[in-house]
């Protein structure tokens, strides 16, 4: 048998390259309009690392290598954004996302109305990844999650954010009143979901 091309550099199954911390250039794959379980309007942004990024095509490869029958786009490449705050006004995170997309694509302006999400397909934006400590299924996890969006041209100079903790992790560390040490109910799993969305997880 002839040795396949690129044999030395091909990753063995089970080997895992984590998302690098800090800024990344992103390309938007899809934006969906949804209602959260608490009946609040939101968008779901599916993205990948863009050509020219140090880990270009990362989530496409993870998705392609997913062997589960019900495979879904990787949670690290998915972001949930409530469009309104508690007073029913535009949320800062939604305005930030739209502004970053507009600054990242010459001549692009957000168009309101039907098929709102369609206009974002293949648009560029930037994102900053940081560590988030979580506790899930009895284990402490160090997740690398999208912390916020930035303009595409600001991604490379973005600094690594300070580490954060999920509520499940805080409860695990501090212990629940009336519960044994280490007890925790189901946390937010592996999903980067802001507080208050109460959205179902794609992985169960």
Give a written overview of the molecule:
With 204 residues, the chain is of the alpha+beta class. It has one domain. Strands 1, 2, 3, 4, 5 and 6 form a six-stranded mixed β-sheet that branches. It is globular and about 65 Å long.
Task: Provide the fold topology.
Layout: E1 22-35, E2 41-49, H1 58-64, E3 78-82, H2 92-104, E4 124-136, E5 139-150, E6 164-165, H3 167-174
Parallel strand pairs: 4-6
Antiparallel strand pairs: 1-2, 1-4, 2-3, 4-5
Q: What descriptors fit this protein?
A:
204 residues, alpha+beta, six-stranded mixed beta sheet, 3 helices, globular
SSE class: alpha+beta
Q: How far is the N terminus from the C terminus?
A: 42 Å
Total number of distinct structural domains: 1
What is the H-and-E element order? EEHEHEEEH
Reported for the largest beta sheet, the result is: 6 strands, mixed
**Portion of residues in helices?**
10-25%
Overall shape: globular
Number of strands: 6
- Whole-number radius of gyration? 19 Å
Question: Strand content of the residues, in percent?
Answer: 25-35%
Low-confidence stretches: 177-193, 195-204
Overall average residue pLDDT: 84
Annotation field: number of helices: 3
Summarize the structure.
The chain is of the alpha+beta class and 204 residues long. It has helices at residues 58-64, 92-104, 167-174; strands at residues 22-35, 41-49, 78-82, 124-136, 139-150, 164-165.
């Amino acid at each position: 048998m002839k040795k396949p091309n690129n044999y030395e550099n091909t990753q063995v199954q089970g080997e895992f390259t984590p998302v690098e911390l800090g800024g990344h250039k992103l390309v938007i794959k899809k934006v969906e309009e949804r209602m959260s379980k608490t009946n609040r309007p939101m968008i779901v942004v599916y993205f990948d690392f863009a050509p020219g990024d140090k880990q270009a095509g990362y989530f496409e490869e993870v998705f392609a290598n997913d062997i589960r029958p019900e495979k879904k786009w990787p949670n690290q490449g998915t972001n949930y954004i409530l469009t309104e705050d508690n007073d029913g006004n535009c949320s800062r995170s939604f305005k930030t996302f739209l502004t970053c997309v507009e600054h990242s694509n010459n001549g692009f302006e957000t168009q309101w109305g039907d098929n709102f999400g369609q206009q974002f397909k293949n648009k560029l934006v930037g994102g900053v990844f940081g560590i988030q400590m979580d506790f899930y299924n009895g284990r402490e996890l160090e997740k690398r999650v999208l912390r916020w969006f930035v303009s595409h041209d600001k991604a490379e100079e973005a600094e690594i954010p300070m580490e954060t903790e999920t509520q499940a992790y805080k409860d695990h560390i501090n212990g629940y009143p009336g519960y044994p040490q280490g007890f925790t109910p189901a946390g937010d799993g592996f999903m980067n979901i802001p507080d208050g969305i109460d959205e179902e997880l794609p992985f169960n």
